[in-house]
């Protein structure tokens, strides 16, 4: 709504012109654009750009408050084999199901994202190593129990998970390297493993 004084002779105000404009469509479009900028279109999890922005914010907050911050990387084991055997639509189904399981395990304060083709990340504020391990193990177990069938055959889905909890030392540049190292160890141990360092 917009109100403008009515002054026909550039003198005394003789009234007010009220103009009502419906901005519902504009606001819906703005919300849609925000979602496109922040969300992964396939999984509806946050995208890498938004995740990295939130990581910087959470690191800053944890340093100021003196709290823990944990990070998990999740990599789908043998995802290329799933795509090759069943096709990309089946691979997309698997990614959507993985995202759903991640959503079920995470708390409202956690930030989950799809950061690559078959890679996911979870940022867990106020979470130390003792809390991180059960969360990662629960996620791994939930994913192992998934029952997805394609062409009347079950698709076996497992993930490798690497993670680390940080406190008092938040080297933003090396956080990803530490968690990548944990993920590499999980894959090196034969996949379908959780490694928290």
From TrEMBL:
One GO MF term, please? diguanylate cyclase activity
Q: Which residues form the PAC domain?
A: 1-35
Q: Which domain of life is it from?
A: Bacteria
Q: Which SMART domains match?
A: GGDEF (SM00267)
A Pfam match: GGDEF
In this chain the GGDEF domain maps to 67-197
Instruction: Show the PANTHER family listed in the entry.
Output: DIGUANYLATE CYCLASE DGCM-RELATED (PTHR45138:SF9), REGULATORY COMPONENTS OF SENSORY TRANSDUCTION SYSTEM (PTHR45138)
Q: What protein name is recorded for this chain?
A: Diguanylate cyclase (GGDEF)-like protein
Species of origin reads Planomicrobium soli
């Amino acid at each position: 709504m917009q109100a403008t004084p009515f002054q026909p002779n550039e003198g005394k105000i003789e009234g007010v012109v009220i103009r009502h404009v419906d901005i519902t469509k504009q606001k819906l479009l703005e919300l849609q654009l925000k979602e496109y900028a922040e969300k992964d279109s396939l999984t509806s999890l946050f995208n890498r750009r938004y995740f990295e922005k939130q990581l910087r914010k959470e690191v800053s907050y944890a340093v100021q408050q003196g709290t823990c911050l944990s990070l998990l990387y999740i990599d789908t084991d043998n995802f290329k084999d799933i795509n090759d055997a069943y096709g990309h639509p089946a691979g997309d189904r698997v990614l959507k199901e993985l995202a759903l399981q991640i959503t079920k395990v995470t708390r409202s304060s956690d930030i989950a994202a799809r950061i690559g083709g078959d890679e996911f990340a979870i940022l867990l504020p106020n979470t130390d190593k003792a809390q991180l391990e059960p969360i990662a193990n629960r996620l791994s177990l939930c994913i192992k129990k998934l029952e997805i069938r394609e062409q009347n055959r079950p698709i076996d889905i497992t993930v490798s998970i690497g993670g680390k909890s940080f406190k008092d030392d938040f080297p933003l540049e090396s956080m990803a390297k530490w968690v990548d190292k944990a993920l590499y160890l999980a894959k090196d141990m034969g996949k379908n493993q959780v490694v928290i360092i």
